[in-house]
Amino acid sequence: MLVNFTPPSASEYIRVLPEILLTVGGTILMIAEGLAGERHRRGLAPMALAFLLLALGGAVVAGMDPGPAFNNMLTVDGYATFFRLLVLIVGILSVLISGSYLTRENADSADYYALILFSLCGQSILASANELIMVFIGLEISSIATYVLAGFLRNDKRNNEAAIKYFLLGSFATAFLLYGVGWIYGVTGTTNLQEIHRFLTSSESVYSPLLVSACAAMMFVGFAFKVSAAPFQGWAPDVYQGAPAPVSAFMTAAPKAAAFAVFLRVYSIAFSGLTERWQPILWVSAMATMVIGNFAALRQDNIKRMLAYSSVAHAGYVMVAVVAHSEAGVAAAMFYLASYAFMNLGAFAIVTHYVGKGERYVGIDDMAGYARQQPLIAALFTWFLLSLIGVPLTGGFFGKFYVFKSAIDSNLIWLTVLGLLNSAVAAYYYLRIIVVMYFHEPTNETGAAGPVPAGVRLALIGSAIGVFVLGVMPSAVLEFANRSAMLSR
Amino acid sequence: MHHLWLIPFFPLAGFLVNGIFGRRFSKGLVSMVAVGSVALSFAWALKCLLALAPLETPHVERYFMWIQSGSLAIPYELSVDRLTAIMLMVVTGIGSLIHIYATGYMHDEDGFYRFFAYLNLFMFFMLTLVLANNYLLLFVGWEGVGLCSYLLIGYYFLKHSASTAGNKAFIVNRIGDFGFSLAMFLIFITFGSLDFQKVFEAAKAVPVEVSAGMMTAICLLLLVGAAGKSAQIPLYVWLPDAMEGPTPVSALIHAATMVTAGVYMVARSAAIFTKAPIAMETVAWVGLATAVMAATIGMTQFDIKKVYAYSTVSQLGYMFLALGVGAFSAGIWHVVTHAFFKALLFLGAGSVIHALHHEQDMRNMGGLRTKIPITFAVLACAWIAISGVPFTSGWYSKEAILGAVHHHSPLMYWIGVATAAVTAFYVSRSMFMTFFGEYRGHAHPHESPPVMWVPLAVLAVLSLAGGFLFNVPHILEPLFPVEHGGHDIMLEIIGSAAGLVGIGLAYVMYVASPGLPDSISSSLGGVYRLVYNKYYVDEAYDATVVRPLVSGSRTGLWQFGDVWLIDGVVNGMGGFARWIGGGVRTLQSGSIRSYAAWVVAGAVIFIIAAGAIAGSNGGLR
Amino acid sequence: MLDTIFFYVFALLTIGGAIATITRRSAMHSALSLIVSLLGVAGLYLLQKAEFLFAVQIVLYIGGIMVLFLFVIMLVNLDQAAKERQFNRQWLLGLVASVLVGAQMVWMLNSAGVLSLPAAVPAPAATGPGNIEALADLLFREYLLPFEVASLLLLVAIVGSVMMAKKTS
C-alpha cells in the first residue's frame, strides 16, 4: 500500500503557508508569554502583528502559484487569495485597536492574540476550502476561537452572556450544516465540491432532487447563521453588543467575510445546477435581512448595538449579490465585503477608544460634541459613517453600486428596489451620530476619552485609506475581484 | 485639451487650503483664498468657453479610465456643450458674487474658515455635476452638493432647529437619490452605458412606441430624483426649513445653483424624456402644482426668508412646467434669470436682516426705504424682475414659458398666469411690509458695507437686463430647437398684466388700506389657516411617514418580532403546557431559547420551501 | 433475520438512552443513560462490520470521555442544582420542534424513496486489507490535511476551555 504513496509536493506546502504561519505564530505567542513573564506583555501585540504580516506575505506568495493542495482539500485561486488577504488585513487592524483596549481593561494576555491568529487560520482555511469536511473544520476553528474571544473579559457580565449565547446558538446552527453535509455525502458519495457539482449535473446519476434541495436548505441554515442573515440573525445584535468592542470589530468583519466566501463557493460550485431551487429562499432571506437590520437600527441608543444591526443590514446587501448568482454578483460581494471591512473597522476603532474603561460610554448621546474635542477623529468617523450610508467617493458607495448592478443584471428588479429603499432608510441612523457629534453640546460626562493611542491611530489611518481607495479608485480591486470571481467548477 | 478639470479643481484646492490651514489664517486670508479660487474658476471657465466657441457639438475631455470592469466602463470625462456653458457661467459667476458678499456677511461669525471651506467644497461638487459627461459622475456631484448643503444648513448648529433642518434636507434628498440611482441602473441595462453621448444617441434611435414603458419608468425615476433636489411636490418640504442656514447659503445653494440641478438634469436627459410623453406630462403637472401651492403659501408667511423660500419652490415649479411641455430652453432661461433675481432677493433680504441685527419677521420691519436706501434700490430691481414687469429678465423667461405652455394646453396656461399674479402679489407684499409704512421694530438699522452691496448692484443690473442680454433659447438652439412660432403679442400682454395686477393688489392691501389683509384673512378663516400652516404637509408627513417608521421599527419589528411573536409563542406554548400538565410553573422566556426557536422555525420553513420548490414529485432522477 | 432483531435492539437502546439523557433530573443518571445510548451506537457499528469503529466507540467515548464526565459530575455538586426550581422548561415547545423537524426528515426521505429501498443487504465481508488499514489509508493519505487541521481545532478548544476555567483575577 505504501508503495504508491507520494508525499505532498513543496508547492502544496507553500499553498497553505498562511495557515502554517498563523498556527506557528499563535503557538509561539502562548509559549513566549510563559517564558518572558508577565512584565513583557507590551511586546505581545507587536509580535502578533509581525506574525500577521508574515502570514500576509505568505498569502501573497501562496497566491502566486495557484492550484489545488493536499488531494484537492484546498484550492488556492484568486478568490481564495482575495479573502485570505481580506481577513488578514482585518486581523491586523483588529490587533492594532486591541492593545490599548486590553491594557485599559487590565486584560493583556497572549491568549487573546493567539486566539485571533487561530481564528484567522480557520478563516483562511474557509477561504480556500474545496471540500465540505474542510469547510466544517475551518468553520469550527474560526467559530470556537471567536466564542472565546467574545467572552474574553471574564469579569464582565455582558461578555459572559455574549459568549454563552454565541456558543450555544452557534453550535446549534452548525449542527444543521453538518447534517446537510452528511446527507449530501449520502446522496452523492463525495464531499468534494466539484464532484458534487459533477454528480448533480450528470445525466447518469440517480438521486432525489427533493433530498438535495433539503441539503441545500440545511446547509443554508448553518451559513446564514454565520453571516447573520435573517431569520438566523437573532444572536448578532446581542453578541456584537456584549462582546469587547475590538472583538466586535473583528467579528463583524473577518468571520463574516470568510463565511460569505465559503457560502458563495459552495452555492456557486456544488449547487450551481439547482439555482432555481435555492434562489427564492435566498431572495426572501436577503430582503428580510436588509429590512430587519435597517429598521431595527433606527431606534437604537447604544452605539454598539446600532453598529451591530447595521452589520446585519450590510450582510443583507451582500446577500443580494449572492442571490444574483453570477460572476458579477460574486465580484460585487467580494468588493462589498472588502469595503465593509474597512468602514466597519474604522467605525469600531473609534468606538473602541471612545467607550472608555469598562465600556461606560456606549450611548449615542455620549458622543455629544465630540467634533469639538477631537475634530480630526470626528471627521474620520463621519467619513466612515458616510461610507456606511453609501455616499459617492467612498468605498461603501461603489460596494452598493456593484451589488445592485449585479442584481439588476440578473433581473432582480424588485430586490434592487427594496435594497435601494433600505439604503435610503439607513441614512437616518448613521446621520444621527454625525448630528450628535457636530450639532450637540458636550455634556459633563463626555470627554473622558483621552488622546487616541498610536495603535488606534494607525488602524484609523489604514481604514480611512482603504475606504478612500475603494471609493475613488475602485478599478484595481474590482478588476482583481472580477478576475477571481470565475470559480472553477 | 483645454484642461476643463481646472474649473472644479480651483474650488477644491480652496477647500483643502482653508480646511486644513484655515484655523491659523486671518479672516482676510481665508476670504482671499475662498473668493480667489472661485474667481479663478470663473475666469478659467470663461477662457475655455471663448476658446471653444461656437461649441456647436459637445467638447469632451477624457482624463483616465475611472472604472473598468467587465461590461462596465466608466471613464473620468468632463464635457462642455452650450447647456453646460450656461450653467458654468451661472454657477461660477453668481458663485463669485455670493462669495464676495459672504466675506462681509459672515465677518462676525464663528468658524469663518469652516464656512468658506464648505462653500468651496460645494462649488467643487456643483461644477463636477455640471461638467460630468456620464450619469455616475453627475451622481457624485449630485450627492456631494447635497452633503455640503446639509453641512451648511446645520452651520448654526447651536440652534436646534438648524440641525433638524439639515437632517430633514439630507433625508428627503435620500429619497430623491433612491429614484435617481434606480434610474441610473435602468439606464445602464437599457442602453448598456452611462455615457451621455452614447445614451442619448441610443435613446434618439428608439421609436416612441417600442420601449415607452421602460423610457417612462426611467424618466419618472429621474423625476423623483429631480423632485428631491429641486424641491418639487411631494419632496419640497426640506427647502423652506433649509433657510435656517446662513443667508449667503440660501442665496447660492437654495436659490441660484443646487436646487436647479434637478432642472439641469432633466434638460440634460431631454433625449430620453422626449421619448416618454407620459413622463413629460407628469413633469408638467408636478411643476404646475408645486408652483401654485408654494405661491399661495408664500402669500401668508411673515418670515422674510420663508417668503422667498416658498417663492423659490414656486419658481422651480415654473421651470419644471416648462420642461414638461417640452420648452427645455425656456426652462433653462428661467434658471438663469431666476438665479439673478432670486440670489439678489436673498442677498438683499440678508442685507436687511444684517441691518436689523438678525430680525427676520416682516411684522417688525417697515419704512426701511429711507434707512437703508441702497438695499432698497437693488431689491426693487429684483422685485420688478420676479413680478414680470415688461423687459426685465424675469419677464422674458416667464413669457417664454407661458407661451410654450399655451401652445401645449390652455388650461395650464391660465393656471400659470394666475400663479404669476400671485407671485407678483407676495413679492410686492414683502417689499411693502419691509420698506414702506412706519418702522415697527426696535433695532437701529444701518446700511451694509460696500463689500456686500457691490455684488448686489451687479446682480441688480443682471436682474433688469439679464433677459435682454442673454437670449438663452437662441444660444440653446442647436440642442433644443424651438418649435412653435414667434411671439404672440396677446399672450405677452396678458402675462404682463397679471404681474401688474399682483403688484397693484398688494399696493392696495398693504399701503393704501393696511387694515384690509387682516379682515380678509379673518373672513377666509379656515382656508387662510390651511394655507398659513402650509397645507399641514409637514404635519401630515410626520404623522404618516416619519413617526410610524421610527416607532414602527420599535413596536413593529422589535416588539412584534422579538417580544410578541417569539415570547408569545413561547409563553403561549407554556400556557398550553400548564393547561395540560395542570402544574403551576412560572414561565419566562430566556432569549437564547427565543433565538434557538427562530433557528428551528427558519430551518423548518426553509426546508419545506426548498421541498415545495423542488416539486412534490419526490421521485428519483 | 437475527441481524434485524439485533438492529432494532440496538436502535432502541440508542434512542431510549438519548431520551433518558435529556429527561433525567439527576446529572448522574443522565450520564449513565448517555452511556447506554453510546453503547447502542457501538452495536450498530458492529452490525455494519465496522469493528474498529466499534472498538473506538467503546474505548474513547465510554471508556474515556464518559468517565471524565462522571468524575466532573461527582466533583462538582450538581445535585444541588438539580433540586433547585428550574425556569424555562419549555419541553413541550422542544418536543413540538423536534417532532416537526423529525417529521420533515421522514417526509423528505420517504418521498425520496429511501424508506422503500430494497431490504438491506448485509455489508460485504472484509476482503483484502482490513477495516483499520483502509481507514488509515484514507486518513493519512486522502484526508491528511483535515486530520492535521483537526488537531488545531482541538488546540483552540483546549485554549478556550483553559481560559474559561482560569480563576478570574
Could you characterize what this model shows?
- The complex is a heterotrimer of chains A (489), B (621) and C (169).
- With 489 residues, chain A is mainly alpha-helical.
- Helices cover 75% and strands 1% of the residues of chain A.
- A two-stranded antiparallel ribbon of chain A has the order 1-2.
- Chain B has a two-stranded antiparallel ribbon.
- In chain B, 73% of the residues lie in helices and 3% in strands.
- By secondary structure, chain B is mainly α.
- Chain C has helices at residues 2-23, 27-47, 51-75, 78-83, 91-111, 131-142, 144-165.
- In chain C, α1 packs antiparallel against α2 (27-47), α2 (27-47) packs antiparallel against α3 (51-75) and α6 crosses α7 (144-165).
- The mean pLDDT of chain C is 80.
- Classes of the chains: A mainly alpha (489), B mainly alpha (621), C mainly alpha (169).
- Chains A and B meet through α7, α9, α12, α14 and α17 of A and β1, α5, α6, α24 and α25 of B.
Helical segment tally of chain C? Answer: 7
CATH class bucket of the largest domain in chain C: Mainly Alpha
Helix content of chain C: over 70%
- Average of the residue pLDDT scores of chain B: 81
> Could you give the distance between the termini of chain B?
65 Å
| Unreliable parts of chain C | none
State the shape of chain C: globular
As laid out across the biggest beta sheet of chain B, the strand order is 1-2
State the separation between the terminal residues of chain C, measured CA to CA: 63 Å
Number of strands of chain B: 2
Average residue pLDDT of chain C: 80
Q: Greatest interface and its residue counts?
A: A-B, 73 and 65 residues
Count of discrete alpha- or pi-helical segments spanning 4 or more residues of chain B: 25
Strand content of chain C: under 5%
Q: In terms of quaternary structure, what is this? A: heterotrimer
Total count of domains of chain C:
2
The helix fraction of chain B, in percent, is: over 70%
Main sheet makeup of chain B: 2 strands, antiparallel
SSE ordering of chain C: HHHHHHH
CATH level 3 topology of the largest domain in chain C: Four Helix Bundle (Hemerythrin (Met), subunit A)
